[in-house]
Amino acid sequence: MSSKAANMNIELTESAVARIRELVSSDGKHGLRLAVKAAGCSGLEYVMDVVDGPAAGDIEKAYEGFTLYVDAESYTSALTGLKLDFQKDALSSAFVYQNPNQKGACGCGVSFSV
Predict the structure, then answer these.
(1) pTM of the full predicted structure?
(2) Which of 13, 17, 32, 50 is deepest in the core (most CB within 10 A)?
């Protein structure tokens, strides 16, 4: 079961909302699930999946066109206060995580520590 979290302290920029809406719509799904997992040389790695619904224990926040599902344990341990942006230039595009909990990151930028 998921729980509603209208006061979830994760911010999505307008460009992140637009990109997530595109991804969810093109896959015919209902939302995006955000979590962290143990990986990489610094300890944690962000995991984003386009999904039909929440996993057990997820917290959620509705946006126009999709729902953001967040793994509750990841939220408590590493994602509180996260700001998620989507940036695009002539050569690349990527989600950019601005995480106030991050204490360190690996050289390649894939993993981080809290």
Answers:
(1) 0.83
(2) 32
